[in-house]
Amino acid sequence: MFDVIVIGSGPAGYVAAIRASQLGLKTACIEKSSSNSKPQLGGTCLNIGCIPSKALLDSSHRYADALNHLSDHGIKVTKPKIDISQMMDRKNKIVSQLTSGVAGLLKVNKVSQITGSAKIIDSNNVEVTNEEKTELFKTKNIIIATGSMPIDIPVAKVDNKNIVDSTGALEFKSVPKTLGVIGAGIIGLELGSVWSRLGSKVTILEAMDDFLPMADSKVSDDVFKEFNKQGLNINLGCKVTAAISNEKKVTVNFEKNGNQSELTFDKLIVAVGRKPYTNNLFDESCGLSVDHNGFISVNDFCETQIKNIWAVGDVVRGPMLAHKASEEGIMVAERIAGNQVEMEYDIVPSVIYTHPEVAWVGKNEKELKDVGVEFKTGSFPFAASGRALATGESTGFVKVIADKRTDTILGVHAFGPAAADIVQQGVVAMEFGASAEDLGLTIFSHPTVSEALHEAALAVNQQAIHIGNSKK
Amino acid sequence: MTTEIKSPTFPESVADGTIANWVKKEGDSVKQDEVIAEIETDKVVLEVVAPFDGVVSKVLKPAGETVLSAELIAEFRKEDINQASAVPKNEIVAEPEKEQGLEINHELKDSSNKNGPAVKKLLKEHDLNESDISGSGKNGRITKSDIVNHLDVPVSKDQEKSMSPSVKIASSSDERLEERVPMSRLRSTIANRLLTVKQETAMLTTFNEVDLKPIKDLRAKYGNEFEEEHGVKLGFMGFFVLAAVQALKKFPVVNASIDGTDIVYHGYQDIGVAVSTDRGLVVPVIRDAGNLRIADVEKSILDYSDKARHGKLSISEMQGGTFTISNGGVFGSLLSTPILNAPQTAILGMHTIQDRPVAIDGEIVIRPMMYLALSYDHRLLDGKEAVSFLIAIKDQLESPEKLLLNL
User: Does B150 touch chain A (CB under 8 A)?
Assistant: First the structure.
């Protein structure tokens, strides 16, 4: 009898399992993926998501730097060459280092590892099937952390030859000359950036008329301009009607403003979002069900309708982000152990790891207007930051939004160098209920790009030093 | 040699204080135990005295500044001001040296202050007491938003004005003067507490009247004898306190208080008696009034009023209390609705005594009448209990022999 069985070993699952075990609970973690008869731990994030994409984003950025920017610094490079198989090897090594690291962590923390596909019979019984056998495990609590998978659309079926999803887009054997991307979301932009830098002529087709609607509109406007300048060629309001793959090419038909167009690419990436993954997870009798979008319904504490069954990460509501998933895993492990831990869902940061980065936390202007909250804002452009200019990365800005009356920080939005790390400072401040004045009265090292956050916070109350303050 | 003068160690419930004034100035000679400075906290004025004969060599915290518990406020130079015998010197010197060692402690304490920068700044600017503000942040941390809400001042030009601690005289063209002065600490504490009570309790008031002829008769008959025997005048308060104690024993819920979702019944009757002073209203507490005689009560009231008028009440003398009596009658009030003294559940309001015609046994007679008011927290007390409680007080005052018989 286990105290806790965790189904899934991604950032939600392995973190929940480790914390549960740390809290003295007898814990098992079930993972069905395996390679070379070893369980493939780490989930989407480590294997086919955050980590490999960041490896390729970094490699491609270095190439683009060598190709286009080193000469700005007076460094002459003869035309750099890409060894794509070496680039992929490096990425794969990082992935295997991290996934075997997770296995080590589970071992150190005395979490039992079970390989196979899990099926929940009821709140105390989980059946696990692998190549060898089917076995029944008894447990007091179940944490579902089965994650998500790419959404496939019937008009562009992934064939893993010319039409790929986000997983296949990390495995190209050569740089496609022309690359189509369906979807201008976070995944589409990151993968589009990778191959664009490596030399692909990229075209992004986005069905919606708004670009990055979840970001602050000033941020998405600037990002749209910058990425088009970088050659991502983002087309909004384009509904793909068909994608026909032959041996070498993919022909994509799409409709914009009622007009049909056609484009032909070497490769097509379908990145229209992700859906929760619960295939074959429940026995019919167990009583669990999913909503019309496939999510398992949970409350703020990640409890399902069935006592002692919990669900965390991409398989439940909220943004599909590894850090949100991990925190939910921790919360649930703590709550099973009887501790009163809660999540601050209003303060989950989002990041797009393009170059420059895009990041935000909290509310944007539109969201605040919609609910009628009065606010004030302060912005600071990296073009006025000494450090940003010194490194030649002066695109973008930091924006702080604060409550008009109480000065409490409601949102931090950044587009530019180290935006993710700058916004993270806002996350910490917001967790402690900081006001814009609090950040303004805090010392920031000089010269850093973080000073832009300091100045933006000062600008909220018309106190910025290194830029003129707008009169209110 | 120079030694450090520190503010007194405040009790836990007192976060900080304000230097009310420097009785001695820089360079003044003072004798041992002479008062150098007065520090006003939200409860009492504390005196800082000279540790030995000497001179105030440097004032580090001018009047009006906020000081923490045991914070350095001045430097003091030991000096034999009378050229008198220097015999006790050696013994005393040891003490200040020990104190100097504490300096490091004090600095560490400062840097571990848990408030964020904007909060620290606002607390100082508005001369606010941290303990008056409930923090909404992690682990009860105070945020700027908490202070803004506490002040409840909309962002406007008014705010800038009120933020400045200095006196401002705004004169308009027709020379109608306005003076703006910051509230004293005691006044702002009173203001906050009263407002909090109004907002956080379900307070209402029930009234009755009492015929004080029997007590007046008693006083006329035994007043002189009483004073000779006990050395204190036989007043009205003693009767009221004892009548209240008897009634509280009958209705223990009136003596109780709410703590969160619990009701705390107190097995003793500590009666607060509101005393008016120049600085504001203070409420010293008569402890264990249930065990006292009228003479004891009268003596402690006299003692407390003297102390209160001279600002000498200690914090411990004002802490606690399970019930309060407020006498607006001394100023001539005919009728009022007193505000609860949180977390107590009820407060009795006494008023002026007036000769009024009343009907007794079908006859109109003139009697010395007083209106009584009982404000109570309806969350804990129902009307029946509150009204019965007030009637119990009235009954005992109209038949004081009941006090003797514990009826």
Answer: no
